[in-house]
Amino acid sequence: MDTPLDRLTEQFRRLPGIGIKTARKLAYYMVQQPQEQVDAFISAVRSAKETMCFCSVCFNLASQDPCPICSDETRDRSTICVVETPQDVMAIERSGDYRGLYHVLHGALSPLDGVGVDDLRIKELLQRLSDTDVKEIIIATDPDVEGEATALYLARLLKTAGIKVTRIARGLPMGGDIEYADEATLAGAVANRQEM
């Protein structure tokens, strides 16, 4: 039977990390809320979808282009922290210790999943480096197999350009995501990064 509640449950189930039980719980919750709260939820989703864009400089998700980080003249423009996702930018920003710029790859190298060099924003990173006076690239990819492969690839590529390449220090668990690390762990990892 395909009811409106089943269709709503299926839409929630499509979200990352949401299983069928949680999707069903969310669907029931939403249909039991007052109409004003449901309308506010729908409006927030629609507004975010319509107004958010990718920064043309760093490819972070933002509501303006260039993003507030790239537009901030007080940030250290000699350092770029390379991350996998916009969520990683937010996680590092929460630590409060990094004041440089970012570059979001939108993924990591994963040949088994069909993600290669051309699927990431690596060409755009190289273009940025040719147009700026960057002295250091901090590689802050996830400490998993794909993140490590991406870090090694970038380190080899960037060392030929004569730029100092560092990797955030260990301290994040292998197989973990930067997005879910606490601020203290991230602050220590960025402060204790090591040259690759």
TrEMBL record:
Protein function: May play a role in DNA repair. It seems to be involved in an RecBC-independent recombinational process of DNA repair. It may act with RecF and RecO.
NCBIfam families in the cross-refs: recR
Gene that encodes the chain: recR
Zinc finger (C4-type): 55-70
Zinc-finger recorded as keyword: yes
Species of origin: Megasphaera stantonii
Keywords: DNA damage, DNA recombination, DNA repair, Metal-binding, Zinc, Zinc-finger
Occurrences of domain Toprim (ranges): 78-173
GO molecular function: DNA binding; zinc ion binding
Pfam families membership: RecR_C, RecR_HhH, RecR_ZnF, Toprim_4
Name of this protein: Recombination protein RecR
Taxonomy of the source species: Bacteria, Bacillati, Bacillota, Negativicutes, Veillonellales
